[in-house]
Amino acid sequence: MPTLRAMWSPVGQQVMMRTLGQPTQHYGIGAVNYHTGESVVLFRRRKRRREIAERLQTLVDKHPQQTIYVAWDNCNTHQDDEVEAVVRAAAGRLVLLYRPTYSPWLNPIEMLWRHFRREVTHCELFQTVKLLLHASQRFFDRCHQCPAAVLSIIGAHPA
HEC profile for 30-97? Predict the structure, then answer.
């Protein structure tokens, strides 16, 4: 489904957006490196604790010698035995920084998600979920090509 934003229309006429019926949901589970601008996103049909633990494990595997700090909110998918198992297995190399509820401006990935929605989904209707996922992947592929732009979007400055 497109995310609707303010649009111009003739006075007294409401803009109508065509829809394709019941939407099939997919979720983006992502992380962004505040120092390098590197972003990693998984698209999944569900956003359960298992998928969140998978994302954390991917980060731990990708950075085997470094301490990883993850800023995130208090979403219920972030609090579970599966997530705790990944944290414990990382043996101090994975530090979770919980942010206050309803404070997306404190989490760098939220700035990237906002930019993503503005560029990819606002007022756009994709004929299929596959086309939406393809457009989403293209956006993050462009992010990989220009990490300096990602740093600007999330409000970080290159080291």
Answer: EEECCCCCCEEEEEECCCCHHHHHHHHHHHHHHCCCCCEEEEECCCHHHCCHHHHHHHHHCCCCEEEE
